[in-house]
Amino acid sequence: MSDAEFAHIDDEECRRFQVSAELAGRKWNAAILLAGARGARRFSEYRALVSGISDRMLTARIKELEAEGLIARDVQPTTPVSIAYELTASGRQLISLLHPLVNWSKARAERTELR
Amino acid sequence: MSDAEFAHIDDEECRRFQVSAELAGRKWNAAILLAGARGARRFSEYRALVSGISDRMLTARIKELEAEGLIARDVQPTTPVSIAYELTASGRQLISLLHPLVNWSKARAERTELR
């Protein structure tokens, strides 16, 4: 795709694009959304799939992603209560449109190894 | 696209995906790459298209994006010397695959306004 695809973008769209890219790119957010897309639902499952994150950070980021409408919290009336965190439609769309980054990163890593 | 697209992703790919998302999402990076895609070449053109960024921050981020191989610096032997900053192929690919964020952000803004 050439620059032409960006020619029509106005400053307001640029600002919103920047806000969204910085939301997705905020430390740990993409990894948490990816974990949700890979099937994580429980807190422990997110922690297992997002290597290196602390409980405190995971708790904070899940709250932020909830506030942004990208993750939904579902409290199940078991004893004790159990809580599941699932990507919302918006969260799923975001991680889905970031999927091409998987291949971009791979190609980039291979180029770096060739140097 | 369903979760199936993410089922095959292994932990190493996850880690690289996270690094790339956090590179793209680092404050100002996406806006600078977008400015380059919108035709910015001179420092002043980037500053004009990336509203709110300081000269000091723009200088630092352009250096980082150069080090990451996403922007290339071209020194032209005019008097005085003039410097152009252009997206590399890798930089162009990255901003191109982030393009869908423009529409995602727009739909998200519209949903937020309806609330």
TrEMBL record, chains A, B:
* Nucleotide-binding in keyword set: no
Source organism (scientific name): Homoserinimonas aerilata
The record places domain HTH hxlR-type at: 14-113
Q: Which UniProt keywords apply?
A: DNA-binding, Transcription, Transcription regulation
Q: Name one GO molecular function term.
A: DNA binding
Does the keyword section mention Cell cycle?
A: no
Q: What name does the UniProt record give this protein?
A: HxlR family transcriptional regulator
Which Gene3D superfamilies does this one have?
Answer: Winged helix-like DNA-binding domain superfamily/Winged helix DNA-binding domain
